[in-house]
Amino acid sequence: MTPSQWKFEDPPNVACFTTQAVVNGGKPILYVSHDEDDGAWQFHSGDDVRSRDAMILALEKIVQMDASVEELSDLPCGWVATRATPRSTWVRAQHE
């Protein structure tokens, strides 16, 4: 991916939170959060997240795993996006 193709404002190597279930377990990304307090990105399967299952991955690696998350490159801080299945449309909402 060339820099001109990169859609996120954050650099490709920015650290993101995810889980072992997504990275090693093949679970789809169904929940994305762009945190209000620090601008961190989180990519989860929608299952409950336990700290022992947490992983940190570069944003570029997340995009390589699931290119559909590029649709969320303009997700504002303090917002989340969810979907029921990997083929479903992302639904955006302000984080409560």
Describe the structure.
The structure is a single chain. 11% of the residues lie in helices and 27% in strands. The protein has helices spanning 20-23, 59-65; strands spanning 15-19, 31-34, 41-44, 54-58, 79-82, 91-94. With 96 residues, it is an alpha+beta fold. The protein contains 2 helices and 6 strands. Strands 3-2-5-6 form a 4-stranded antiparallel sheet, with no helix packed on it.
Topology of this protein?
Elements lengths: L14 E5 H4 L7 E4 L6 E4 L9 E5 H7 L13 E4 L8 E4 L2
Antiparallel strand pairs: 1-4, 2-3, 2-5, 5-6
- Describe the sheet with the most strands: 4 strands, antiparallel
Number of helices: 2
Distance between the termini: 34 Å
Proportion of residues in β-strands:
25-35%
Helicity range: 10-25%
Q: Order of strands across the biggest sheet? A: 3-2-5-6
Number of domains: 1
User: How many β strands by DSSP?
Assistant: 6
Mean pLDDT: 93
Rg from Cα: 12 Å
Shape: globular
| SSE pattern | EHEEEHEE
- Poorly predicted regions: none
Which structural category fits the helices and strands?
alpha+beta
Summary keywords:
96 residues, alpha+beta, four-stranded antiparallel β-sheet, two-stranded antiparallel ribbon, 11% helix, globular
